[in-house]
Amino acid sequence: MPASADSTFNHPTQFVQGWYWALPCKDLAVGRVKAISLLGRNLAIYRGASGQVVAMDAYCPHMGAHLAEGKVEGDGIRCFFHNWKYDAGGNCVEVPSLGRALPVRVRTWHTAEKYGMIWVWVGQTDPGSTAPLPFAPELEQVECDTAFGARFVKNCHPNVLLINAIDAHHFNTVHHLPLEIVFERQALNAHAVTFRNTTRGGDDAWLIRLIRPLYRQEVTYSLCYWYGSTGTVTLGPDFLHFYILFALRLAEGGKTEGQTILLTRQRSGCLGWVINRGLLWLTQQVGNYFAKGDTQVFQTIQFDLKTPIKADQSILDLIQQVNQQTAVHWGTWETVIIPERNLPT
Ligand code: FES
Ligand SMILES: [Fe+2]
Fold this sequence. Notes:
Helix content is about 15%, strand content about 30%.
C-alpha cells in the first residue's frame, strides 16, 4: 500500500505511537549518558545514581549543547557547556553563574526496561496503564531469561518486514513448508494483534506426520504484533515453546533497524541457568531459520498490495490494525490529525 496522509501503514514519516526499543540495558551503566537518535528525534539517555533511566531531548535550553556531552550527577544531568543542571524530570535546577535555577525545562520521555532492552515511549500522550511494553502472550506475567540475536538493518519499512511472518502463501513458495497455514486474527488489546495458525492439514507430507504427535491440536505458530513495529513469534511442540521477539523501528528513508531478542521462562538454580543457555541457543537457531530465504526480497521490495487474494487476508488485517492506531510524526512525535472524512474504512 503506498503511503498517504491518512494511512500510517508503510509511511516513511508517520508511525504508530508506542514503545520503541532504544538500546540494550547493559550498554547504559549507572552514571553514563549516551546520544541516540530515535525515530527522527535526537535524545540524551542516561542512567542516574538510583538506576533509573532518563530519556530527554538532546539539546540544552540554554544554548543548544548536546546534553550527552554532559555529566550525570545523582539522578540529574549537568550540561558540559555552562554547567546548567537538569533533574530527572528535565527541570533546570541549577545555573551556577546565577546561583539559582531558571524556570526552563527539557522535554523528557517515559522509559522502561524489559527483556534486557531499554524502551522509550514515543508519543504526546502518556502510556498510562493501558499501553504495555511488548510481550509474547504466553509470557505476559512470566519472568524471562533473554539473549540478544542479530541486530540488523533492512531496506524496507518495519510494517512490511512484519508482514513476512503472516504471509501464509510464502511459507510454501519460499520456505517449502508442506503445510497450508491458515491464520486466525484476534485483538489482544488496543495496541496488539495476534495471528494464530489454525490449520490441521498437511498429513500427506512426511515432515508433518513426523511432528504431528508433538502437538495436541494444530501446529503451534503464532505472532503478536505491537504498535505496528515489534513482533513476537511463538512456535514449537506443546512441551517446549520457543519465543522470539523482533524489536523494530523506523529508520531514515523508510528503512528498518531491528534487534532480535530470544526469550525463555526463567528456571531456577544453576541447572536452570544451564538449561536456559541451551534453550536460548536453540531459539537462536530457530530465529536464524526465519531470517533465511527472504533476505534479498526485503532489499528490493516496493511494497504495494495492489492485487490481494484470499491468502493475503492476514496482511490486509494488519494494515487495518496499524491504520487504526494513534499515529505520530517522524521527529516531532506529535499526534497526526487525520481528517475524519479520510479515516480508513
Ligand atoms: S548550552 Fe548548556 S549550559 Fe549552556
Ligand atoms: Fe519468510
